[in-house]
Design goal:
The structure holds 2 protein chains of 2 kinds. Chain A is an all-alpha fold. Chain A has 13 helices and 2 strands; from the N terminus they run H-H-H-H-E-H-E-H-H-H-H-H-H-H-H. Chain A has a single domain, classed as ABC transporter involved in vitamin B12 uptake, BtuC (Orthogonal Bundle), CATH 1.10.3470. In chain A, 74% of the residues lie in helices and 2% in strands. The chains are: A mainly alpha, B alpha/beta. The interface between A and B is large, with 44 and 40 residues.
């Protein structure tokens, strides 16, 4: 392998890892909701879009840095999620409908309404938050003069990645160490048993929907400095979150993290070595492969390992 | 009961006459456009431009004393929606001419419907060569075809840059693909070796894997065919990776509109792009239109807007010359069009395998100090081109000091 080839490979892996970290954060929100509610929230990408608009408004009218706006966007999205769950999803959950999974269809509708409201308020123009550090990057040759290869590490991408990591860690801590988190996990594992143990399942559901929305809203704030924003952007991220949820194993947080990283790295490798036009094909290939070969997702593989040991 | 049905019958008969009564003083034109979705940006710009044109036409007495009444239908850049809208316009509303659409995919769908139903269709800003190569009798195109978009750029590259190698990046749409194919052929003719020809999916987040491959190939020129946000992301990430080509060139669309500079900021500096029109051109009405647009909406329009604006004047001109307002009457008049608009001269010719195609000079713009300046062909130039361009490493201080806003 020549140094040029090595450079391409390493740069690809760096990009894949950074992208994967962000994908994981988008996936976790959906996976959480999936775990507790047993429904796929197809308005997930649209909730992210709402988070991004919050960041955009804060930036353009108050010059608040998109990363800081997580502190505002996440609570706002939490409230939005809670309201959606309480007044839209829950009532539908209770009704016997002709079509099964009618809540899923409801989430599609919620998504449409959200993106159309965004179009009405902000028009369908592309929006960005032109931060000063948008194209700043660290270069290997700046630190190691004799380096045979040149690698660059984008500053906003790295910052977003670190934030994604912190949020994920925080979530993991919350789910494993706190009472509330344990109740959520109990609800996800066995709703009836949790109910008998005195867990307020209804409240957990509402809370989880809020939490899932807050996380994806935060992901939106992390995305806006490196990407851009328009009302119809939700769909592609819903799709990504969906693939990650399936890949990771429905409802598993660890699975979503590993799934996100795998998807990010896989997409980058496909872009470099097969062709960027093939990246969406690769995404579907992974999706189908996960459904056929590991229907339980990555988490089932991890569990099997642990059991056989 | 009998009286009631009689009354209903009378009402019904009257209602048949109603459209004719109203038709006497207005001419309704419904324009299909993408107003939602990824291409909405361009759709809006064109909508505003159509409106400015309609205002001017009506201020001067409309078309043959009939007030031009515009309405817009959103196709969302989806060919099937565009198709349905136009089928409705022709079959139900009997609109004798179709103007509009933006993406090539939609224009293709609309062209097929228009041809099938023998109604003239004026293509305004869709570039895919195919559209006017199918021996369609009723499809007219005002903007130059994709194969010619890059004429100016390739001329500039050959005369100024004289490179040996090139990389072509393009989005996987009809527009992107045909633009890349055209450039590949032009490059082969000019003896430039294409090291890499890669497509990507519009709306991608991360171009760095692709770009690091480009970097390893070390092309002298990087030519990109993209819509707006991809264009700025590409340049930003090129800056991040410090890919030092001798020239970064864009194939119109995304690179040629002000948003490109707003979003890519200093990464946009020195990038050249093909374009079909610029407010700096000296066609009668070009500057007035651009200023009017800027005054109203705060930014200069790109060629999309100018083409839309002029399309209504072409329509007006054809309808005034048409012996009757039937599809065939208007078709015959369109065919004989010879008009100078704000967009440039318009004349529909059959040549080079195209039918009813307008051919105009294409221009080259360069981003100089955060503004698009016309640099090529030199007779149209508003500023002298900047070449060679500095490497990314050397740009650091200068770009910031240069005050790119």
């Amino acid at each position: 392998m020549t140094s040029a080839q090595l450079e391409v490979l390493l740069q690809t892996l760096i990009s894949g890892l950074l992208l994967g970290g962000l994908y994981a954060l988008i996936g976790i929100g959906m996976t959480l909701i999936m775990g507790v509610m047993k429904i796929i929230n197809l308005a997930h990408g649209e909730l992210m879009m709402v988070g991004m608009y919050v960041a955009y408004v804060l930036f353009s009218s108050f010059h608040i840095d998109p990363y800081l706006s997580i502190l505002i966007a996440a609570p706002l999205l939490f409230i939005l999620g809670v309201l959606l769950q309480k007044y839209l999803v829950n009532p539908v959950l209770k009704v016997d409908a002709i079509i099964p999974e009618n809540q899923v269809i409801l989430t599609v509708g919620i998504g449409m309404v959200l993106s159309n409201i965004a179009t009405m308020i902000f028009s369908s123009d592309y929006k960005t938050t032109p931060v000063e550090y948008a194209t700043k990057a660290w270069y290997l040759s700046d630190y190691w003069k004799a380096s045979p290869i040149e690698l660059s590490l984008s500053m906003p991408w790295s910052v977003s990645f670190v934030f994604a990591l912190l949020i994920t860690l925080g979530l993991w801590f919350f789910l494993t160490k706190t009472d509330m988190g344990k109740s959520i996990r109990a609800t996800a594992q066995d709703k009836d048993a949790a109910l008998m143990m005195g867990v307020n399942v209804e409240r957990m559901r509402v809370f989880t929907f809020g939490l899932g929305s807050a996380i994806v809203g935060a992901a939106g704030c992390l995305f806006i400095p490196i990407y851009y924003l328009y009302p119809d952007l939700g769909g592609q991220f819903t799709l990504i979150a969906f693939v990650i949820t399936i890949l990771g194993g429905l409802g598993s947080t660890i699975g979503a993290i590993v799934g996100g990283l795998i998807l990010g790295i896989f997409e980058s490798l496909t872009s470099t070595y097969i062709g960027m036009g093939w990246a969406p094909v690769g995404r579907f290939a992974i999706f189908v492969a996960a459904l056929i070969f590991i229907p339980g997702g990555i988490v089932s593989v991890l569990k099997r390992r642990r059991l056989s040991r | 009961m009998k009286r009631l049905s009689l009354a209903a019958l009378t009402l019904f008969i009257f209602s048949l006459f109603v459209p004719y009564v109203f038709a006497a003083d207005t001419f309704d034109l419904v324009i299909p456009l993408p107003l939602t979705g990824k291409q909405a940006k361009f759709g809006e710009m064109m909508k505003k431009s159509y409106e400015i044109a309609a205002e001017e036409i009506n201020a001067k007495g409309g078309i043959k004393k009939k007030k031009l009444n515009l309405t817009f239908e959103d196709s969302g850049a989806k060919p099937e929606t565009a198709r349905a809208i136009v089928e409705k316009l022709i079959d139900t509303k009997k609109q004798p001419i179709i103007v509009g659409e933006y993406t090539s995919a939609c224009a293709k769908a609309v062209a097929a419907v228009a041809e099938e139903r023998k109604t003239p269709y004026l293509v305004v800003a869709s570039a895919d060569d195919d559209i006017t190569q199918k021996n369609y009798k009723y499809v007219f195109r005002q903007n130059p075809v994709n194969a010619h978009y890059s004429d100016g750029v390739i001329d500039f590259i050959q005369k100024v840059v004289k490179p040996k190698t090139m990389a072509i990046l393009f989005e996987s749409s009809a527009f992107g693909t045909s633009g890349a194919d055209a450039m590949e052929k032009d490059a082969a003719r000019a003896g430039i070796k294409v090291l890499l020809k890669e497509k990507y999916e519009a709306g991608s987040v991360d171009f760095k894997p692709l770009l690091s491959k480009v970097k390893a190939a070390q092309p002298e020129v990087i030519y990109m065919v993209s819509y707006v946000m991809d264009a700025s992301l590409l340049m930003k990430q090129i800056k991040e990776l410090r890919i030092d080509a001798k020239l970064f060139a864009g194939g119109a669309a995304g690179f040629a509109i002000p948003e490109f500079i707003d979003n890519a900021k200093d990464a946009a500096e020195y990038v050249i792009t093909a374009t079909l029109w610029s407010p700096q051109l000296k066609y009668a009405g070009a500057k007035e239109y651009a200023e009017k647009y800027k005054k109203k909406y705060g930014d200069y329009p790109s060629y999309h807007g100018a083409s839309a604006y002029s399309a209504l004047f072409v329509t007006k001109d054809a309808m005034e010359r048409a012996k009757d307002w039937t599809p065939d009457g208007i078709r015959a008049a369109l065919k004989a069009t010879k008009l100078t608009t704000a967009f440039g001269p318009v004349q529909f010719e059959d040549k080079e395998g195209y039918q009813n195609q307008n051919f105009t000079d294409t221009l080259v713009l360069q981003v100089i100090k955060g503004e698009h300046e016309t640099i090529w062909p030199e007779k149209y130039a508003s500023k002298k081109y900047l070449y060679p361009i500095p490497t990314w490493r050397d740009r650091r201080g200068t770009a910031q000091a240069g005050g790119i806003n």
